[in-house]
Structure formats: structure tokens, C-alpha cells
Write a structure and sequence with these properties.
Elements: E1 3-9, H1 15-23, H2 27-35, E2 39-45, E3 50-56, H3 60-68, H4 71-80, H5 105-115
Antiparallel strand pairs: 1-3, 2-3
Protein name: L-rhamnose mutarotase
Pfam families: rhaM
InterPro entries: Dimeric_a/b-barrel, Rham/fucose_mutarotase
Length: about 120
């Protein structure tokens, strides 16, 4: 399942409030995210306001469209928009621009195992 990582910028003077809002996200929003195909979704916030989001989903566009169809997402995005700097698309969920993945440990370890010759033990079967 593809991994998605994105960044947004939270207003530095609103970090504590942003953290507080995410300490207990509305149960309806949590269910909508899970039902829409957002898996292993995490947000990481740096002290200067850099927000890094990570999720796993089969299809990001479909997961975003499914969320856009929910009333709870419209309410959540309207409340969250003021926390962010320079939202080109108007709401945080529309501003997500996935980053290119340039390294993944598990993928490279798997590739290495698949290309590594079987160890020779010197034993005859």
C-alpha cells in the first residue's frame, strides 16, 4: 500500500492551540478518516510550525474525495484553515502536496534479500 507524506505550515503563534485541537479529534472525524481509506495517519509538528503528515492509502485521490463527501470534513477543514500559513487551495486538505519518497529502508532491504545469492554452507543435501 503506498505511503504518502506531505507538509503544511502552522502559524507559529498557534502551535499550542493546534496541538490541543488534535489531542482529542472528534470521534466522527476519526471514523470518517478510517472509513475513507486513511490508514496509519500521523501528524508531526516542529517548533517552527512545520507540520509533516504521513498516511498509507491505496489511492490518495479517492481517499481525499471520500473525505470531501462528508459533512464532518467540511466542518473540520473550516475550523482548521485559520491555523495554517498561505493555504493556496483554501483548506488544509486541498493543500496537501505529496512529497516524493527517495528512500525506504524496508523496500531496499527486501530488494537486497531478493538479489543476494543463497549462502553457501558447504553442506551437501
Amino acid at each position: 500500500m503506498p505511503r504518502v507524506c506531505f507538509t503544511l505550515q502552522v502559524h507559529p503563534d498557534r502551535l499550542d492551540e493546534y496541538r490541543s485541537r488534535h489531542a482529542r479529534v472528534w470521534p466522527e472525524m476519526l471514523s470518517a478518516l478510517a472509513d475513507s481509506g486513511w490508514h496509519d495517519y500521523s501528524l508531526f509538528l516542529r517548533e517552527d510550525g512545520l507540520l509533516v503528515g504521513y498516511l498509507v492509502t491505496d489511492d490518495l485521490a479517492a481517499a481525499q474525495a471520500a473525505m470531501e463527501a462528508t459533512d464532518v470534513n467540511a466542518r473540520w477543514q473550516a475550523e482548521m484553515a485559520s491555523y495554517f500559513v498561505d493555504l493556496d487551495q483554501g483548506t488544509p486538505d486541498r493543500a496537501i502536496r505529496p512529497l516524493d519518497e527517495v528512500f525506504n529502508l524496508e523496500a531496499q532491504l527486501t530488494a537486497e534479500r531478493e538479489t543476494r545469492p543463497t549462502a553457501q554452507t558447504g553442506e551437501t543435501p
